[in-house]
Each structure stands twice: as C-alpha cells, then as structure tokens.
C-alpha cells in the first residue's frame, strides 16, 4: 500500500512539473518579431508521432497584431502547407482552435539567436506537450540544441519525442505554401 501511495505521489508530482511552463521574464514583444527557423520540435501528440519521419526545418514568421499579441505563422515544407498560432499577452497565452486549447509560452529567448517555446495542448480530456526551438539562423550552437533537449525532457517528453529538424535541400524561405 505504501509503494502504491509513493508511486501515485511521484506521478502527481511529475504531472504538476510537466504542466508548469514558466514564461520569459521581461519579454520584449517587439524584439521577438521577425523570421525564425524551426530547428527542433518535441511533442507527444499523435500528429507529431505520425509525421516526424517526414518533418523538415521550416520558416516561422512572427508579426504583431493590432491587439498587441503575436501572430506566429510557419511554412511547413514537408506538408506543403501553412500552420499558424496566436501568442497572446506578454509572452504567453491561450487559444481555442477547433476544440483544441493551446497554452503557448515563450519559455526563454535572447531574441537574436534562439527561442524556446512551450505549448500545453488540451483536446477533450487529453493533454499533450510541445516544445519548439527557434533560431534566427539555420544552425545553432550545440549547447542550445542540448538546452532544447533538456527542456523537452524536463517537461515530461521522452527522448523519442524529440526531433532536431533536418534542413531541406531547398531554400526554406521559398517552400510552396497554399
């Protein structure tokens, strides 16, 4: 009985740690805008698991909205399409899209080199985690790749849920989108 209680308590602590995603202190909205490259993606969503073998690096453009939020649009070369999200508030926010709630946060950034974003995704009774690594250049220092991996692991993702996106053979700025 004591072992079951300890296991349940450990699981509860893990779930609590996984759910907490701090935001970047003193976030500077205007410095975060512009073009980023999606360098790494980690997720336990079914979509990620089904598509990760074909995923490649893509461009992401962050623009301010009239409401003072950030619009994040990514060109997805591997799917020949576009995806977008809205980042509300100072460095985090919630968006309800097609019955799926996204709680997106800028976890850490130095604005001119890299950014780590976290996303808690809720669809019905299911909750998923996504951590993304953006870079201003197509390649980042190895220690930033390691920081991304450790951040994903610290939010409850497994090693097999983590992917450093390979560069495409084409210029990712000119992928076909529709």
UniProtKB/TrEMBL annotation:
GO molecular function annotation:
prostaglandin-D synthase activity; small molecule binding
Please report the stretch or stretches of sequence annotated as the Lipocalin/cytosolic fatty-acid binding domain: 33-168
Keyword Flavoprotein assigned to the entry: answer is no
**EC?**
5.3.99.2
**InterPro entries documented for this protein:** Calycin, Lipocalin, Lipocalin_CS, Lipocln_cytosolic_FA-bd_dom
Spans traversing the lipid bilayer:
none
Which transformation does this protein catalyse, written as a reaction? prostaglandin H2 = prostaglandin D2
Entry GO terms, CC: extracellular space; Golgi apparatus; nuclear membrane; perinuclear region of cytoplasm; rough endoplasmic reticulum
Give the signal peptide range.
1-19
Classification via PROSITE patterns:
LIPOCALIN
Please provide the Gene Ontology terms (biological process) for this protein.
Answer: mast cell degranulation; prostaglandin biosynthetic process
Keywords attached to this entry:
Cytoplasm, Disulfide bond, Endoplasmic reticulum, Fatty acid biosynthesis, Fatty acid metabolism, Glycoprotein, Golgi apparatus, Isomerase, Lipid biosynthesis, Lipid metabolism, Mast cell degranulation, Membrane, Nucleus, Prostaglandin biosynthesis, Prostaglandin metabolism, Secreted, Signal, Transport
Instruction: Tell where it localizes.
Output: Cytoplasm, Perinuclear region; Golgi apparatus; Nucleus membrane; Rough endoplasmic reticulum
Record-stated family: Belongs to the calycin superfamily. Lipocalin family.
Q: How does it assemble?
A: Monomer.
The name of this protein is: Prostaglandin-H2 D-isomerase
Identify the species of origin.
Answer: Pseudonaja textilis (Eastern brown snake)
């Amino acid at each position: 009985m004591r072992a079951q209680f300890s296991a349940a308590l450990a699981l509860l602590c893990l779930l609590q740690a996984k759910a907490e995603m701090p935001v970047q202190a003193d976030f500077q909205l205007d410095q975060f805008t512009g073009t980023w490259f999606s360098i790494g993606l980690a997720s336990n969503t079914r979509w990620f698991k089904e598509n990760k073998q074909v995923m490649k690096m893509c461009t992401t453009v962050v623009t301010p909205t009239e409401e003072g939020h950030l619009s994040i649009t990514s060109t997805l070369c591997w799917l020949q399409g576009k995806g977008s999200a809205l980042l509300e508030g100072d460095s985090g926010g919630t968006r309800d899209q097609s019955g799926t709630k996204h709680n997106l946060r800028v976890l850490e950034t130095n604005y001119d080199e890299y950014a780590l974003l976290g996303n808690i995704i809720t669809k019905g009774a299911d909750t998923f985690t996504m951590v993304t690594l953006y870079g201003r250049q197509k390649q980042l220092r190895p220690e930033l790749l390691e920081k991304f991996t450790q951040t994903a692991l610290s939010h409850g993702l497994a090693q097999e849920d983590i992917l450093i996106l390979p560069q495409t053979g084409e210029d990712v700025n000119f992928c076909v989108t529709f």
